[in-house]
Amino acid sequence: MATSERASAAGDVVAQAHAKLLADSSLQFHLTPFVAPRPPSWLTALLKALQTLGPVLRILFWLAVAAVVLAIVVWAVRAALRYRRRYTPTRIGGPLLGPDPASLRPAAQRAQALLEEADRLAAEQRFEEAAHVLLFRTIADLESRRPKAVRPALTSRDIAALPEIPPRAKNAFAAIVAEVERSFFGGRPLDAGGFAACRSAYTTFVSAESWAVGART
Questions:
Q1: What is the distance between the alpha carbons of residues 108 and 176, in angstroms, rounded to a whole number?
Q2: What distance in Å separates the CA atoms of residue 121 and residue 134, rounded to the nearest whole number?
Q3: Which helix (H) or strand (E) holds 38?
Q4: Is residue 180 classed as helix, strand or coil in its secondary structure?
Q5: Which of 15, 49, 126, 165 is buried deepest, with most CB atoms within 10 A?
Q6: What is the DSSP string of 39-75?
Q7: Which one, of 127, 169, 121, 120, lies nearest residue 145 by Cα?
Q8: What string of H, E and C letters represents the secondary structure of 146-210?
């Protein structure tokens, strides 16, 4: 077979294969160009609004940062003042104690009325309530006389450690706190002996000797 005949036969085979390939409907030869989807109108409007509000949002962001920093500084200053107030000795005649340290001492009539109420509860075998009355009424009395010294955030132990209270009265108050805490946190009900200890400590707490200048245990 001549060379020209062989080339013609090969061309026919290629043409037949190409025609068969084009006739195959499972193949796609014409691809449509990719068109990016358009974002919804609300998203476009939102993006434009954010671009417009960009400077305002930056200002709001830095204002928020400044507010957080200011809050931390205020907290730190208050904590430092509380620490200084708690651990700096208060001199007699200073702005907290006034001319007489006994200004924090409960009035005799209030103390007597409180003891009578506690005794009434104790007579009904309500020893824990009686001790709580002695403690919480004493705290309320101290707070009413010196609100700047006795603050709501202070615990009973904090109040017992206040430098405004003379040592003897401080120890008596701490004894009441100890009895109440043992019954409240220790799971041991306060009995008649525990109330008697609280009553005795309160009697010591309100005595004039406990609030005298230089009073000791």
A1: 19
A2: 11
A3: none
A4: helix
A5: 165
A6: PPHHHHHHHHHHHHTHHHHHHHHHHHHHHHHHHHHHH
A7: 169
A8: CCCCCCCCCCHHHHHCCCCCCHHHHHHHHHHHHHHHHHHHCCCCCCHHHHHHHHHHHHHHHCHHH
